[in-house]
Amino acid sequence: MTTTPAAPADSAPAPAPARSWRATAAACTTVVLWASAFVSIRSAGEAYSPGALALGRLLSGVLVLGAILLVRREGLPGRGAWRGIITSGVLWFGLYMVALNWGEQEVDAGTAAMLVNIGPILMALLGARMLGEGLPRRLLLGMGISFSGAVVVGLAMSGHGTSSVLGVALCLLAAVVYALGVVSQKPALAYGSSLQINTFGCLIGAVACLPFTGVLISEAADAPMSATLNMIYLGVFPTALAFTTWGYALARTTAGRMGATTYAVPAIVVLMAWLLLDEVPTLLGVLGGLLCLAGVAVSRSRQQTGPTPGNPDRPVEGRRHDAEYRSARRP
Questions:
Q1: What is the pLDDT of residues 126-142, one digit of tens each?
Q2: Bigger pLDDT: 164 or 130?
Q3: CB-CB neighbours of 76 under 10 Å
Q4: Tens-digit pLDDT profile for residues 258-280
């Protein structure tokens, strides 16, 4: 006899407009905070090596997430969540952060941005293959527009330095494990809240990075306070808060659609670099950012395919996504 997993705490029934607004706000919070991470990594990365920076960031995130979990008394997620938690914890929280930190030291920022932005495309393809999600034409078109924008932004950001084969390989590895981590996390959200899934995913990522403990301690002793504060910021906001809002939104849409949303990050990075680092964007960078945002708008729009029998106000595509979500919650 099978049982249906309990609904996660952050997915209690609510009016459809409220759910849509909250999910959109959560997705926007995530992309803004992830964009800010690129600015903080520049500072922290000057004093901390890739593994130490990842471990320090994850430990900060675990402390914040764990404290919130205790205050909310949410406890452990359902048993069915642990496979996704462990997989996403090792791949996304652990390996992805180390590979990205390391890769950005070997290649210029523009090249890294172009390579890592392969991730959302892989996410959509893996979501279709492993989760049975569709590949709507608007999603594919929007992702194509956004990826071209990310390439343009990358070209605008590229310096005159050389890109090593190792750096390229590390950025590609980061893109692959990013996509695998997201697709692994999606089913787990049917068995627990976003807070539960990400708290224990972050903890597992920190455990996986424990071999860098000695390096972190030695580097923290010599690091300037600004670098350490940026590392803590990375753990509290782009990790603890942003991963939780990401999970909240991911539980309410497809992995491909959420992946397409992250193409807004390059545009926000260009704006933040201008405001916070006095890096005046080039015309090419502005054009790329606008393309990224245009692609996100196209990919997030819903294609009207006509009313369904018995409910003339409900599009066929919406009913299909509802059915897929309900089926994903069954063991």
A1: 888 888 887 788 888 88
A2: 130
A3: 12
A4: 888 888 887 787 787 777 766 66
The owner of tokens 């999910």 is 23
**How far apart, in whole angstroms, are the C-alpha atoms of residue 153 and residue 111?**
10
pTM higher than 0.90:
no
Residues paired with 307 in a beta bridge: 315
The amino acid occupying position 80 is G
Q: Is residue 321 predicted with pLDDT exceeding 80?
A: no
User: What is the 3-class SS of the chain, one letter each residue?
Assistant: CCCCCCCCHHHCCCCHHHHHHHHHHHHHHHHHHHHHHHHHHHHHCCCCCHHHHHHHHHHHHHHHHHHHHHHHCCCCCCHHHHHHHHHHHHHHHHHHHHHHHHHHHHCCHHHHHHHHCCHHHHHHHHHHHHCCCCCCHHHHHHHHHHHHHHHHHHHHHCCCCCCCHHHHHHHHHHHHHHHHHHHHHHHHCCCCCHHHHHHHHHHHHHHHCHHHHHHHHHHHHHCCHHHHHHHHHHHHHHHHHHHHHHHHHHCCCCHHHHHHHCCHHHHHHHHHHHHHHCCCCCHHHHHHHHHHHHHHHHHHCCCCCCEECCEEEEEHHHHHHHHHHHHHCCC
Residues 6+ apart with CB under 8 A from 264: 31, 35, 292, 293, 296
Strand partners of residue 315? 307
- Kindly report, residue by residue over 119-130, the tens digit of the pLDDT: 888 888 888 888
CB atoms within 10 A of CB 257: 27
pLDDT of residue 135: 79
